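Each record in this resource describes a single protein on a pair of labelled lines. An example record follows, reproduced without changes.
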Amino acid sequence: MSLVVVGLNHTSCPLSLREQLHFPAEMQAAALSRMRERLGNAGVVILSTCNRVEVYASQVSPNLCKRVRTCLGEWHGVPEAEFSDHLYEYEDDEAAGHLFRVTSGLDSLVLGENQILGQVHDAFDLARRAGAVDKVLGSLFQRAFAVAKEVRSETAIAAGKVSVGSVAVDLAASIFGDLTSKTVMIVGSGKMGELTLKNLATRGVGRMLMVNRSVEKARDLAGQYGGEALPLDGLDAQLHEADIVVASTAAPGYILRPEQLQQALKRREQEPMFLIDIAVPRNVDPACADLDNVYVYDVDGLSEVAEQNREARRAELDKCMRVVDKHVARFWEWVQGLAAEPMIVSMTSELHEIRERELRKTLMALPDLTDKQREQVAYLSKRLVNAILQRPMTELKREIGHHDPHTVLHLVRRLFGLKETA
């Protein structure tokens, strides 16, 4: 069995490339179907967030990483040469370890963040509903969720502020100082927007404007934090009122462009505006940063602030990695044990064929037995064979988990006189 992850993240490539390879949520089911078709019905899960794009795949097949790379480029129409140098690839137990670290928030821009766990849950659930999850990936992701829970319960890695939204608010506070006199506009009422709004509310920001395509949704969210709701088509009319704009929509194109900012700045008499773009693809045209008195930060621009957060939590990393390593070893032993299943089926079938043959001979030699007695003899023969098989099956799985599976299986096949399995 080959288990791989092929991906890129905030540390391996720039945001401009992550945008090109991003999988919008509404397109992921189709992408899963196409990849499975191109990979020969492999198990596939796609994880695409603002900071990473990763494809997890499992299949009994050589060159699986290379084939996933090809699928990634084909789906997005991006030549492989343009992104291959930015990819990371992990196989087998290293792939499992990577997912466990990601799900636990140990590979995030904000070390220990909680939001990634929900994102991995969503990616797995989408793949499961699309019929793209096989036995190995199903077990891998379920174990990843258990690892994340143990990491969070046994360490302090997730203590305090652990979201991109909190980092964005920290950055705003470091620039403006007191936020009580400032007006903040949140564009987008998804999970990221809500987290940012929650962090702003704890800082006592003076006024909060919640902008969303669905004004009802914006009103529901704004009501929880004492904010004001606006429809998306009202953005330009009140943009000048915002000192800080946090953009986090799933829009495929820019919703804030230089000409909009220029008009807002005129009405503000050139008072500075601070824009935090935590969406992928980006919501703010990068050209906005060229305007005087406009300061733009995207998810990559938050890295410096996030690094301060990381240093404060680094002491917990060793504890977290011990939890991850423990579960990687257990999971990979289970995966390797899967190679024993065809052999176990063959062993069981062979011994029960012998049992049934010898049982028929015995019963023919004892014609005076009642039907009840014949059933008892047959039941006894089954129990004996199952008892004899129990220890070899357990040891076979253990040996395969610690030694070369092909060598172990070849030896067992010779010992039991079994035929080659397909």
